Structures are given as C-alpha cells and as structure tokens.
User: Which sequence fits this backbone?
C-alpha cells in the first residue's frame, strides 16, 4: 500500500515552459514534505521542502504547493531548463507522529526538458 | 565535506555469495539510513540508525539481510546468501542537526548490485 504516490512516471516539457510534477499522499499524519532530484548514476539530492503549516514554499525557479485537504502537493519549475531533466521524487515524513527522520518516497517522475 | 561515501560503486556476484556494502555518513550526522531502489518498488527504506542504534528494521526483506553500525562513521549492509532478486541500487543516506533539519537526508552515490 503506497502512502506516497506519483502517478505520472514521466513528463516531457519544452525548455522555458512550466513543469508541474504532482504527488498524492494518504497518511494524514504526514507533516513535512520534500522533493528530491536524481540524475543517473547519482544519489538523490534534496531540492525543496514544505511544512504542513504552510501551503507554499518558493526557492528560485522551484515552488512547492501543498493542499492538505486534498492530500496533494505539486512542484512547479519555471522556467524549465534542459539541466532540470532528471527523476524527481516526492517524500513525506511524520515528524511528530512516528519515527523522526523516516521518509516515505514516491516512485518518482522522470522529467525531460527539450531544448 | 566529502558527503556520504559508499563502496563499492558496483558489485557483481554470483547467487549464494555474501555481499557487503559499506557506508560512511557525513561527519556529525546522527541518523543513517539504508535504502534499496528497484523499478518495481521504487525507493524503499530498509533500516535506519540513530546514534549507531538500529531504530527501525521493518523494511529489511529477509533474514538474509543484516546491517550494523559499529561507530558513528561507518555502517555495513550485508546480504548472505545473495539471490538474483536482490539486484538493485542500494543507497545510504544520513541526516542530523548539521543539516538544519533532520528530515533533509543526504544520499550517497549508491551501490549497483547485480547477482547472477
């Protein structure tokens, strides 16, 4: 039973346009959410996070939106660049309701940004 | 800092052999995690340690898998005996107060294991 779901295995976007990656979760105890980016032959690297007390967090070209009522979050990349082509993982944590530091990952979405 | 270090980067072995994967976390981090990535199951947590003590090993698939953390700077994941279905990429990650947030885990480059 997947607690964190990324229903789109892949996404293709034109350079300069917006990329929107989606993530759904089922566990209402999750209170912290993260996005990781992974290039081939490398480990995932932290990209951006959001606490459940917020509904938006922005860092440069990357913005994460959280809709707690829908148990849904999304990552927006504007404008998209070819270097953004990677696999993006959504992850969630229940910092106060369970094991601290334990992240549950989605299966990832492969983003391809075409020049 | 050199980041999380894993060795070997690639391991090819035959079914039945013992495999040992190694990890050096970022200095000062007090949490260490072992993950396995496969196409079917994605990135799944196997076990994690806090201050060298195993906290949750519910993700360890079978008794063939074992993990140790003898000190703050070293951990091993052992598979004995190995089977073809163990073929995957194994990641080690660490986190701690130095990261500013315990939830921001730093991953190593992974070990690609192939069991023939």
Assistant:
């Amino acid at each position: 039973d997947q607690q964190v779901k990324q229903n789109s295995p892949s996404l293709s976007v034109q350079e300069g346009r917006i990329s929107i990656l989606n993530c759904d979760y089922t566990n209402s105890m999750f209170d912290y959410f993260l996005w990781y980016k992974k290039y081939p032959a490398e480990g995932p690297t932290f990209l951006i996070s959001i606490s459940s007390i917020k509904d938006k967090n922005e860092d440069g070209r990357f913005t994460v939106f959280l809709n707690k009522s829908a148990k849904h979050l999304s990552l927006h990349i504007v404008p998209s660049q070819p270097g953004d082509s990677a696999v993006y993982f959504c992850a969630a944590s229940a910092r106060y309701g369970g094991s601290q530091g334990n992240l549950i990952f989605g299966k990832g979405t492969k983003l391809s940004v075409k020049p | 800092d050199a980041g999380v270090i894993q060795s070997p980067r690639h391991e090819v072995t035959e079914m039945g052999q013992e495999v040992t994967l190694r990890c050096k976390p970022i200095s000062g981090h007090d949490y260490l995690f072992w993950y396995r990535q496969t196409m079917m199951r994605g990135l799944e947590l196997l076990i994690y340690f806090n201050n060298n003590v195993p906290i949750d090993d519910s993700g360890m698939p079978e008794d063939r898998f074992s993990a140790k953390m003898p000190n703050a700077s070293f951990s091993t994941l052992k598979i004995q005996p190995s089977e073809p279905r163990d073929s995957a990429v194994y990641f080690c990650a660490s986190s701690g107060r130095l990261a500013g947030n315990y939830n921001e885990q730093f991953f190593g480059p992974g070990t690609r294991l192939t069991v023939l």
